Amino acid sequence: MITKEQIKEYITGLGMCAVGFTHSGPFYRLERVLKERHGEGYLSGFEKGTIHERCRPGECFDWVRSIISVAYPYKLYRTAPDTGLKGTISSSAVGEDYHRLLHSKLGQAARYISERTEGFRYEIMVDTGTLADREVAHRSGIGWYGKNCSIIIPSFGAGVFLGEMLTNLVLEPDPPLEGDCGECTRCIENCPTGALVGPYTLDAQRCISCLTQKRGIVPQDIRDRMGDSLYGCDQCILSCPHNQVDKNGSKAVSVDLEELIGMDEKGFNKKYKHSALGWRGLNVLKRNAVIALGNRGHQSGIDALENALRHPLPIIRGHAAWAVGRIGGKRAQRMLEESLAREQDEYVREEIRAALGEPE
Question: Which of 127, 174, 256, 345 is labelled catalytic?
């Protein structure tokens, strides 16, 4: 029979910086928090399953006896000041899509266990199932919650991908890891939109990381706070003193905004298919790119925005109108007036009128 120590040693050898074990009992703390956040309207909308399904693995998966939690490190990059037409992506989106990467490594671990255990059954989740990866990680003892709601791994910080393997093996649970941010509130102070409404409390509806991944209209009162973010936001992590930041890799998180806006699906898939950006898709990122151009405020971005004002999708045209109005100038005024004259979609017309400063 395979031992817990053998499992941990093998998984650590796959590049994990932390491995922990927990039981399949209810996540009572998370259940209480999710109910509170739901009542406050703070949940992102990306959550899978009901609160019961997210917090009661042993009831929803009656064969599960233990959960193996893992953390895989990635480099955190601090973006350099850039006056050009560049947007930024989260460090977690650099390189191969972490869902695929970590799922593959956990699949390798499952094969290792299966070869040594008769009747082994498992299911892998990497931000893809009903369980909350962070809560599993916390109860498994691999890290503790920071005030930014991220799991902080000792000696690594929050620059980690989290995943878990549900299994029918009976494995001794590890005790939760206790940590403390002390008096530090840097993450809260540096959140661009005030999404961290207090210590350990996140309003995901205002979180840039969430907003840049959601479809639909980005609220106007938040757009100017998104800066040049195209996918994700690292500000609450970069401001945390527990993290190790690569200050020389800023090019890794830079994306040409004009190129992105002008891309077709074929070009996008060729460049980003195997990254986290590929998962989100081209049109959401184009919407984010026109917002970023508006926040950049450079007249040189007008050409790309003029094309965006003629995009087939109203969501792109509407945000492009906002961006053109934010840049301003005579050409911007003319572009908006011409767009208003030909536009049929009422949502886009409202955006254009607002950009022109017309009363509603």
Answer: 127
